[in-house]
Amino acid sequence: MKKIFLLLVIVSSLAFGNPFGAGNKSIGITVGSGSVSYSGGVLVGSRVENYYIVGVSADFFVAENLAVGLGYSGWFGGTPTINQGTIPVTYYVPTDSKFRPYAGVFYRYTYIADAQYDSYSSTGVRAGLAILFQNGYAGFGWVQEYYLNDEGRSDTTSGYPEAVIGFSF
Asked: Is pTM, for the whole model, over 0.70?
């Protein structure tokens, strides 16, 4: 009985360890779908294209619970193809449970593979709740993205839900 209890304690400590420790790294995947409306070179209007989104990201925890990362997402299946590069900074609030609130900021560059449409930059904020599991986490939250104009100011914004999964090592 003591061996079973000891085994359960060890396994539970592994299951809810801190994947957000300083020096840790994590790799995440993105899979989803999205749509864009196009009209006259601006991302609003009459023609709607539906896309499959596939991406990968990597984070490095520069301090306890603080990650800086780099991500790529490709939007495929519609015309034109869209490629996005993102630099996020995320803080995970330390708690004594497997649930960790998080908040972050990011910069994103979106390249549209058609000269008819303009590529653009955006910044944003995100917040949500990460749920720890062995060697990783899953997160669910909200993203608010601000699209920048030529002067670096936001003309438009959009909000959308996010679901993430990360594997730490």
From this structure: yes
Q: Are 30 and 73 in contact (CB under 8 A)?
A: yes
Contact 137, 131 (CB under 8 A): yes
CA–CA distance, 142 with 84 (Å, rounded to integer): 19
Q: What is the pLDDT of residues 78-126, one digit of tens each?
A: 999 999 999 999 999 999 999 999 999 999 999 999 988 889 999 999 9
Is residue 122 within 8 Å of residue 145, measured between CB atoms? yes
Radius of gyration of the chain (CA): 19
**In the chain, where are the structural domains located?**
2-168
Residues 6+ apart with CB under 8 A from 105: 88, 89, 123, 124, 125, 126
**Which of 130, 140, 141 has the alpha carbon at shortest distance from 168?**
130
Which of 69, 74, 65, 67 minimizes the C-alpha distance to 57?
69
**Which CATH code of 2.60.40.10, 3.40.350.10, 2.40.160.20, 3.30.365.10 fits the domain covering 2-168?**
2.40.160.20
